[in-house]
Amino acid sequence: MTGDLMTLYGAKDSAELTYQIPAGASNADQSLLIDYEASNLLIAPSSLTIAIDDEPVKSIKLDGSSKRKTVKLNLSKSQSAQGYHNVSLRFYGVLKEGVCVRQDTSGNWIKIYPDSRLVLSEASKSKGADLGHFPYPFAQSGNTGEETDIILPDKPTSAEAEAAVKTEAFLKTADSRLKVSYVKESDAGKISNPSIVIGADRHWNGKIKDLFEQGNIKAEDNKLLLAERVLTSGDKRQPVLFVTAQSDKTLADKIRVITDSAYSGQLGGDTLTIGRHTVYYFIQGVTSLILVLAANTGFSAFPQLAFNLARDQYMPRMFTVRGDRLGFSNGIIFLGIASILLILLFGGRTEHLIPLYAVGVFIPFTLSQTGMCIKWIRQKPKGWAVKMLINSCGAAISFMVLCILFATKFNLVWPVLLFMPAVVMLFFVIKNHYTAVGEQLRVVDQQPEEIRGTVVIVPVAGVTTVVQKSIQYAKSLSDQVIAVHVSFDRENEKKVEKRWEELHNGVRLVTLHSSYRSLVHPFDKFLETVEQKAKKEQFSVMVLFPQFITKKRWQTILHNQSAFLLRVRLFWKKDIIVATLPYHFKK
After folding, report:
1. 106 lies in the same domain as 167
2. Are residues 143 and 85 in the same domain?
3. How far is CA 25 from the centre of its chain?
4. Does a structural domain hold residue 172?
5. How many whole angstroms separate alpha carbon 83 and alpha carbon 53?
């Protein structure tokens, strides 16, 4: 009902509460207790009107008595039906004459206490011998404040104690005000509250052991046994859940079936053995085959789909390339990487991945069936009406399943609403790119501008064999060759110039001094100057980078990568030809 004290203030105020009738509860002899206290300044016609599911149930006159009171409301058959019910509280307060002129003051109030609760009949509790209703009747929604006992062996092991604590925590997720008491076997007299017995079967020696024998409750090897029974104590019947195994390890490993809602919601019957039976392996095998078939469908269909989209320029061209085995290997690799990322992103939780998979299946089903309907309407071939009817039914069924998935699993499938529009937009961005590229590469009747020659620029870090070979190669391409050296200190600059003069290769060396030790900026400025002059003479500009290749790949990191930085910079400059002359070391 409510976990906190609620205060309503006059002259008029209202509040909404809810209660839940759990599955398996009887729909007879249920009642609702409203615990309240009103201001002693109230007079007639002050009142508290209570309605359940918008149907007025009772109107309480408030006469100024400040005593705390409880009113009991017997619920009708419809108000005791399984599920949630709404309780409306409407307060109307009038203060005594002469106390206050205004009615909306702090003295005009009524309090609703957290002890207000739903009271289920004993018949409802005795009907609880069904695991399918768990955690009811040991805990029920609505902050009832009822009591449940957890019975442990006289000397519980750490595994049994941990299982008991986890069970208590789970019960309190249903009823935060539930009172849970831990009782040792030797202290367990007559069972007066709903009880959960937790412990390995060999640890019971007294009354609980007798209950195990009377109820024919015996755990099997490496299996957890759940058995719910209704025991009679005097004129009362109390539900008891036995949770046992032959070993502590089995109890610790499998206790999650009653402490995790993902598992407890699948319980059923009054006795259940949790373990690996023949049926378990059969179900696991069949499930594996289904998953293998589903995965195989994706890995066989997606590469072909990606090929078709890439052929129509909606995906990168890499998806059109066939591998050594004539399969679209890039599509397979891409799908494999995407699958790994999904598993890592969702932590391998299949209960989160399966709804996404289902939505991913039924959206294409709906679209494809709808597309076929449009095809039959437009073309109207012979017998199209029957085909139209079949595809219409398929589209309607797929759409209904899709709506159910969104209605029941929206918290898991909402990313699809963001992902699919983003993917479609990406397809159109790729299409626009390829269209623009095609327009620029298309051969037109206009003749390209004539190139009369080439200016070859060779960056020089120092005078080496690699530089000498690069200069010789550049001279074979053009008689306009310029060597460029960027220096950071004057002394080294003079040494390079002196050694260059000793080569007598007929190529001019241009030295650029960089005061801020920047390599890219001065070289970039020099290129702009050369490029402007070259355009006037209808010359192209080529930058030829001398590049030595080490014998072993790991040795590359031992050398300066300044040439790489310059190449990356020049790739984005228009009308600059970038070339590399490799020189391989032999040792």
Report:
1. no
2. no
3. 35
4. yes
5. 12
